[in-house]
Amino acid sequence: MAKAEKLVFYFGGGKAEGIRVAKTDAERRMILGGKGAGLADMTAAGLPVPPGFTISVQNCEDYYRHDRKLSAELKKQVMENMAKVEKAMGKKFSDVNDPLLVSVRSGAARSMPGMMETILNLGLNDKAVEGLAKKTNNPRFAYDAYRRFIQMYSTTAMGLSKEPMEEILHQAKKKAGVKTDPELNAEALKELCEQFKKFYSDNMKGQPFPQDPYEQLWGAIGAVFNSWEADKAVTYRRVEKISNLKGTAVNVQTMVFGNMGDHSGTGVCFTRDPNTGENVFYGDCLINAQGEDVVAGIRTPMKLAELGKLLPKAYKQLCDVRVHLEKHYKDMQDLEFTVQEEKLFMLQCRTGKRTAPAVFRIAVDMVKEGLLTKQEAIARITPEDIERLFYPQLDAQTAKSATKLASGINAVPGAATGQVAFTAADAEEMAELGQKVLLVRKETSPEDVGGMHAASGILTATGGKTSHAAVVARGWGKCCIVGCEALNIDYETESMKVGDKIVKQGDFLTLDGNTGDVYLGKLPLKLPEQPPAYQTLMKWCDELRRLKVRTNADTPYDAENAIKMGAEGIGLCRTEHMFFDTEERRLAIQEMIVAETVEARKAALAKLLPFQQSDFEGIFKAMNNKPVTIRLIDPPLHEFTPKDDAGVHKLSQVTGISPEKIKHRCEQLHEANPMLGHRGCRLCITYPEILDMQVTAIIKAAIACAKAGIKVLPEIMIPLTIDKKELAIQADQARALADGLIKAAGIKVKYMIGTMIEIPRAALLADQIAEVAEFFSFGTNDLTQMTLGLSRDDAGRFLPIYVASEKDGGKGIFKHDPFQSLDQDGVGMLVKMGIEKGRSTRKDLKVGICGEHGGEAASVKFCHRVGMNYVSCSPYRVPIARLAAAQAVISENLGKAKPAIKKAKKSAKKKTK
Amino acid sequence: MAKAEKLVFYFGGGKAEGIRVAKTDAERRMILGGKGAGLADMTAAGLPVPPGFTISVQNCEDYYRHDRKLSAELKKQVMENMAKVEKAMGKKFSDVNDPLLVSVRSGAARSMPGMMETILNLGLNDKAVEGLAKKTNNPRFAYDAYRRFIQMYSTTAMGLSKEPMEEILHQAKKKAGVKTDPELNAEALKELCEQFKKFYSDNMKGQPFPQDPYEQLWGAIGAVFNSWEADKAVTYRRVEKISNLKGTAVNVQTMVFGNMGDHSGTGVCFTRDPNTGENVFYGDCLINAQGEDVVAGIRTPMKLAELGKLLPKAYKQLCDVRVHLEKHYKDMQDLEFTVQEEKLFMLQCRTGKRTAPAVFRIAVDMVKEGLLTKQEAIARITPEDIERLFYPQLDAQTAKSATKLASGINAVPGAATGQVAFTAADAEEMAELGQKVLLVRKETSPEDVGGMHAASGILTATGGKTSHAAVVARGWGKCCIVGCEALNIDYETESMKVGDKIVKQGDFLTLDGNTGDVYLGKLPLKLPEQPPAYQTLMKWCDELRRLKVRTNADTPYDAENAIKMGAEGIGLCRTEHMFFDTEERRLAIQEMIVAETVEARKAALAKLLPFQQSDFEGIFKAMNNKPVTIRLIDPPLHEFTPKDDAGVHKLSQVTGISPEKIKHRCEQLHEANPMLGHRGCRLCITYPEILDMQVTAIIKAAIACAKAGIKVLPEIMIPLTIDKKELAIQADQARALADGLIKAAGIKVKYMIGTMIEIPRAALLADQIAEVAEFFSFGTNDLTQMTLGLSRDDAGRFLPIYVASEKDGGKGIFKHDPFQSLDQDGVGMLVKMGIEKGRSTRKDLKVGICGEHGGEAASVKFCHRVGMNYVSCSPYRVPIARLAAAQAVISENLGKAKPAIKKAKKSAKKKTK
Question: Closest by alpha carbon to B687, among B772, B596, B582?
Answer without folding.
Answer: B596
